[in-house]
């Protein structure tokens, strides 16, 4: 049987696995807002606490606490209340077996039909999307989706010690990559995206008023234009991969 050529119209559960607090909001908060409004239960898995981020003299030992609180508030702005934190060091992610296991654990806990993550491919036209942590989180998540989470013999301690049965994810949405094949018009929920982004005070409070919306909105409007949407629309784009 051939694989689908379009994403499912609706899923019961979705999991977003991203490297840092705010990654999901810059790239996908509008899409997530649409999913939750349609009744999909969305969970977040944040691989790091974003402890290497920020633009002021906030002590480094305070940053993880602040950024967890900011991401929790941002998630609530788009209808998400289930957050999982892996606690890896910001800026030093590597695609280890331990990271694959930890993401597989969350997949088996949440049991999502859809997983959203960062593209593991470098995007040379917009290099900022290809932070090494983003690429590592995306590659590790893909390895967790296939084959780890679905294979009962992978990371056997997840089943033997924690009772987590194998789970197959049907589709993966990759953001920030060079090969998008699906666009989501988020114009009707863009204010919720702005609210989510503005929750990340440690990351955006240094910007003049309106600059964040102008900057992010500019490439969202360009994304919409590139994918044939009408003038002035806001869009988020993804590469949707069906896992078979």
TrEMBL record:
The keyword Zinc applies. Signal peptide: none annotated. The keyword DNA-binding does not apply. Transmembrane segments: none annotated. It comes from the Bacteria. Coiled coil: none annotated. Gene3D superfamilies: LmbE-like. One of its GO terms (molecular function) is hydrolase activity, acting on carbon-nitrogen (but not peptide) bonds, in linear amides. This is PIG-L family deacetylase. PANTHER family: LMBE FAMILY PROTEIN, N-ACETYLGLUCOSAMINYL-PHOSPHATIDYLINOSITOL DE-N-ACETYLASE-RELATED. GO terms for biological process: glycoside metabolic process. Keywords: Zinc. Pfam families: PIG-L. InterPro entries: GlcNAc_PI_deacetylase-related, LmbE-like_dom_sf. It comes from Modestobacter muralis.
């Amino acid at each position: 049987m051939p694989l689908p050529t379009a994403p499912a119209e609706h899923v019961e559960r979705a999991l977003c696995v991203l490297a840092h607090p705010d990654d999901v909001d810059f790239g996908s908060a509008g899409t997530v807002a649409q999913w939750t409004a349609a009744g999909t239960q969305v969970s977040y898995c944040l691989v790091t606490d974003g402890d290497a981020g920020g633009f002021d003299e906030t002590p480094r030992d305070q940053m993880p606490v602040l950024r967890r609180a900011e991401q929790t508030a941002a998630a609530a702005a788009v209808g998400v209340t289930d957050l999982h934190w892996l606690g890896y060091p910001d800026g030093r992610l590597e695609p280890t077996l331990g990271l694959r296991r930890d993401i597989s654990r969350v997949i088996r806990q949440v049991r999502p039909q859809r997983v959203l993550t960062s593209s593991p491919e470098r995007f040379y036209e917009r290099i900022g999307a290809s932070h090494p942590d983003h690429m590592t989180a995306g590659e590790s998540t893909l390895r967790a989706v296939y084959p780890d989470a679905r294979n009962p013999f992978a990371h056997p301690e997840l089943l033997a010690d924690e009772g987590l049965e194998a789970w197959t994810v049907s589709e993966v949405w990759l953001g920030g990559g060079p090969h998008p094949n699906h666009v989501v018009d988020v114009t009707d929920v863009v204010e919720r995206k702005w609210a989510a982004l503005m929750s990340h005070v440690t990351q955006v409070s240094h910007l003049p008023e309106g600059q964040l919306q102008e900057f992010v909105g500019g490439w969202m409007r360009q994304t919409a234009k590139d994918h044939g949407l009408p003038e002035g629309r806001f869009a988020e784009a993804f590469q949707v991969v069906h896992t078979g």
